[in-house]
Structure formats: C-alpha cells, structure tokens
Automatic annotation (TrEMBL):
Enzyme Commission number, as recorded: 2.7.7.7
Official protein name in the record: DNA polymerase IV
GO annotations of cellular component type: cytosol
Keywords, alphabetical: Cytoplasm, DNA damage, DNA repair, DNA replication, DNA-binding, DNA-directed DNA polymerase, Magnesium, Metal-binding, Mutator protein, Nucleotidyltransferase, Transferase
Main location: cytoplasm
Regions that span the bilayer: none
Gene symbol of the encoding locus: dinP
Cofactor note (record): Binds 2 magnesium ions per subunit.
Compartments where found: Cytoplasm
Entry superkingdom: Bacteria
The protein's assembly and partners: Monomer.
Enzyme class: transferase
Record: residues binding Mg(2+): D9, D103
Database matches in PROSITE patterns: UMUC
Organism: Parapedobacter pyrenivorans
Length: 398
C-alpha cells in the first residue's frame, strides 16, 4: 500500500516566536543568541541570512556582517512551550506523529485519503496551526519521509508542496545533491569533485558505483536520490529512551555520595545524547529503598542535551523525591521524549568557551571512552584523579 507521509517544519522558529511577542522585530534582521557578545548565533531571520549570517556562527562575526541586526537573548522555556503547543495540535488529529526536532514533525497519514484526501487534510492542518499559534510553518507531502522533508525545504518560507506517488524522481532530479538530508560536508565535496551537482546525475548512476566511492553511505544516498525510503514514522511511545541505574553494594543514606553518583550518570547519558545528536524533553528519577519500595518521578523539561541543565533538573527531582531519610538500594535516571537536535538549542546561556569546553570533553570521551574524563562534581571532595585500567582519567573542575 502506498504511504502518505507529511513533514512539517516551523520557519525560523525561534525568530518567529520572538516576533509573536514583539511585532517590531518583523521584517528586520534578527539574531537569536546568548546575552554576551562571546556567544553564538542559535538562529537568525531570513533578513539576516541575506548578509551571510548562519546559525552556530560566533555572534561577533554575525554582527560584523550585519551591524543593523537586532540581537535577542534566546528563551529556551518559551520555545519549548510553543513547540509543545504545535505538537498538541498535530497529535489531536493525526494517527502517528514523530517529533523529529523542536520545530519539525513527521506524520503518517496513510489511510486518511479514503475519507478526506491527504492533500486537503494537510492544507487544513497547516492553516489550523498558523491560525492557532500565529507561527509560519511549511509542509511537504509525499510517499516517504525523505521526499517530504525535501519538499518542505522547497516550499519554504511558509509554503506547502505535494509530490505525488510516482513523481519522486522528476521532483528530485533538478535539485542540488546538498538537499539530500544525509549528504554532509564530506560527501558533498566528494560528489562535487566527481562533477556531480544535481540529484538527477546520481539517479542515472548505478548503486554499485556509489558504493565504490562512498561505501554503504553511498548506497543510502543513491536510494534517497531515487526517492526510496521505507523508514517508518516513529512516535514517542515507541522510541527508545536512555537510562542508567546504580545498585549499591550496601544500602545508603549518604546524600553527597548519591548526588555524585547521579551527576556521573547524568553526565554519561548527556554525552550519549550529544553523540547521537539528540535532545531530551523529559527526565525520570527512580529510587528503590532497602525494603524494595520503588518511587519514580517524571519532569517535563525544555529540550536540552547540556550536562549543566540536566544535572540541575535531576538534582531538583532528587530533592523532591528523596524526602524520607530511608536507606537507598538503587538509584536510576532515564531520559525520554528524545528528539533530534544539536548544541544550538542550548547556546543562549553558554559562551563560546563553555561550548568548546563541552565539545573538547566529548572528543576525549569519543577517543578514550566515556570514563576517560570526569567532572570534579562527580568526585568526592579532595579525591585525586585516579587512573582506570588502561585508560586515563583527568579530573575536570568546572
Ligand atoms: Mg525550522
């Protein structure tokens, strides 16, 4: 059966939310970022992009390129709230929804055509989101996720685009190979060096040729170039969450030690999030007492993968949940409601230095393992950094 998959993406989401609250920002170049000029651009308006500004660029450089830009300090909670409102509207009427990032969703609406016609349904949903939130959003509709995502890109800003079943290849052929979601800087350069600019050229190649040049990745690109993609739309409840637990050899009420163990687990999980380029929107703390009574508490949080934010949130939960001074046998943390996203979401509070420190620590972990580097907060006071078997362990005081 032919599938019907919608992709939708809010246009310059952070900027649009700021404009809702302050209409004087409309039509102006707007940069969203941290408070200090050592910060990074988290998002910018189309007007600013015309000056060559893009996200993840140092704020100072962006202001040199576009001195008249208005700088707005990003508000994490606010954007997560609006993101949640959009998700709610979509989930109300859609059978299967995958929240792909803070401003992106995939919808599987296969079967809707029998009653409504998928295109009409998609247009109505888009109007409804615009009317109810005031936020501009673009939609793509096709038989799979890849083609719909590319269609959304072509529909921007604030438009909609349908690619009918069977029309995938001609739709993709004239577009740049850069439009294929998985073509990164490296593959792009490689393909360009082979003289390949347009997706149509990849369509005319054989899959084994692409394999010789780019390995398995090449075959995956070739499939996408030909409009082939059977990846399912995966809702939250079917997605994997990430969790860690520690069972103590001896039941304990040592709160300092418990906090250190928690901080260590949060750090390791946050690193896993960043490695997989994901953000979490919900943390759960689990405590099992010596009598096997188990208590869990959940907290919805603004999407993040920052150690600092997550350690604070889990610390809050711990304070709430651990009110009885009882011996603890096990403690665990889970991150769920995972969506795709990178550092950018957290750049409002962090300076360039803090972001590069976190990235440097992640590079060490990628090379030497998660245990290779530990923050001072995870070690008992005065404890010297201890080498682990075969690894190096450096204590890092934040
Ligand atoms: Mg967007």
């Amino acid at each position: 059966m032919e599938r019907h998959v919608v992709h939708c993406d809010l246009d310059t989401f952070f900027v649009s939310v700021e404009r809702l609250l302050n209409s004087s920002l409309s039509g102006k170049p707007v940069l969203i970022g941290g408070g200090s000029d050592r910060g990074v651009v988290a998002s910018c308006s189309y007007e600013a992009r015309r000056f060559g500004v893009h996200s993840a660029m140092p704020m100072r450089l962006a202001l040199r390129l576009c001195p008249e830009a208005v700088v707005v300090r990003g508000d994490h909670d606010l954007y997560s709230r609006y993101s949640g409102i959009v998700t709610e509207i979509i989930e109300e009427i859609t059978p299967v929804v995958e929240k792909a990032s803070i401003d992106e969703h995939y919808l599987d609406i296969t079967g809707m055509d029998r009653y409504f016609g998928c295109w009409k349904w998609t247009q109505e949903l888009r109007q409804r989101i615009i009317n109810e939130t005031g936020l501009p959003i673009s939609f793509g509709l096709s038989v799979n996720k890849t083609v719909s995502k590319i269609a959304t890109g072509e529909a921007k800003p604030c438009g909609e685009r349908e690619v009918q079943g069977g029309a995938e290849r001609p739709f993709l052929a004239p577009l740049s190979i850069r439009k294929i979601p998985m073509v990164g800087e490296k593959s792009y350069t490689l393909l360009r060096n082979m003289g390949i600019h347009r997706i149509g050229t990849v369509q005319r190649m054989e899959a084994p040729t692409m394999r010789r040049v780019l390995g398995e990745n090449g075959v995956a690109i070739w499939r996408k170039a030909n409009g082939l993609d059977d990846a399912p739309v995966v809702p939250f409840r079917e997605q994997k969450s990430m969790s860690k637990e520690t069972t103590f050899q001896q039941d304990t009420i040592d709160v300092d030690m418990l906090r250190r163990v928690l901080a260590g687990m949060v750090d390791a999980l946050a690193f896993e999030l960043r490695r997989e380029k994901k953000l979490t929107g919900c943390v759960t703390l689990k405590i099992r007492y010596s009598n096997f009574d188990t208590h869990t508490q959940q907290l919805r949080i603004p999407y993040t993968n920052s150690d600092r934010t997550l350690t604070a949130k889990v610390g809050e939960l711990f304070k709430k949940l651990y009110s009885r001074r009882m011996l603890i046998r096990l403690i665990g943390v889970r991150f769920s409601h995972l969506i795709h996203g990178a550092y950018q979401v957290d750049l409002f509070n962090d300076t360039l230095e803090e972001v590069s420190l976190m990235q440097a620590m992640d590079r060490i972990r990628l090379r030497y393992g998660t245990e290779a580097i530990v923050k001072g907060i995870c070690l008992p006071d005065g404890m010297p950094a201890k080498p682990t078997k075969g690894g190096r362990r450096a204590a890092q005081r934040p």
